Amino acid sequence: MFEFSNSEKKQKFEQLFGITVLIVSIAALYAFGVLGVGRGTGTRLSDFRWFYTAGQLLLNGQNPYDLEIFSSAFQELTGKASNLALAYPPQFTPLCMLFALFDYKYCIYISISSSQHTISLVF
Questions:
Q1: Distance of alpha carbon 13 from alpha carbon 75, whole angstroms
Q2: How far apart are alpha carbons 52 and 58 in whole angstroms?
Q3: 74: closest CA among 49, 45, 98, 37?
Q4: Cβ atoms within 10 Å of 107's Cβ, excluding its own
Q5: If phi over 0 gives left and psi between -120 and 50 gives alpha, with beta otherwise, what is residue 41?
Q6: Could you tell me the pLDDT band of residue 10, with boundaries at 50, 70 and 90?
Q7: Which of 20, 51, 73, 97 gives the lowest tally of CB atoms within 10 Å of its CB?
Q8: What span, in angstroms and rounded, lies between the C-alpha atoms of 38 and 44?
Q9: How many angstroms separate the CA atoms of 87 and 55, rounded?
């Protein structure tokens, strides 16, 4: 593809390429993960509502994978209907439970802040 006559040029190209891939990856993480670009709802952290609802159910000894139970709790929390239950594996549930220990609005603030802080640590 590219032929380099000098190993120094090749090394600089590889470094520049690596930095470019890193920047694009972080931008995609922020756009899709934090801002919610491309989601049907268009809201920030729209998955968080599912995480929080699942955590609340788990802390109350209920099954977040049961559609009827989850839909009812989700409707109560958000005022919106859901035709989906928790779609994440059981290994993810401790994080959901951690979120559910706090007030919903406070958790959203923590989630946004931690996402932005994590991205800033890379730079």
A1: 52
A2: 10
A3: 49
A4: 19
A5: alpha
A6: confident
A7: 20
A8: 11
A9: 13
Task: Tell the residue number behind the tokens 């699942």, with chain if given.
Answer: 54
* pLDDT band with cut points at 50, 70 and 90 for residue 42: very low
Query: CA 110 to CA 118: how far, in whole Å?
Result: 12
pLDDT number for residue 40: 60
> Whose CA is closest to 54, among 80, 35, 77?
77
Q: How far apart are alpha carbons 39 and 48 in whole angstroms?
A: 13
Tokens coding 69: 């139970």
Following DSSP, what letter does each residue of the chain receive, concatenated?
----SSHHHHHHHHHHHHHHHHHHHHHHIIIIIII-TT-SS--TTTTHHHHHHHHHHHHTT--TT-HHHHHHHHHHHHSS--S----S-GGGHHHHHHHHTS-HHHHHHHHHHHHHHHHHHH-
**CA 116 to chain CA mean position, Å:** 12
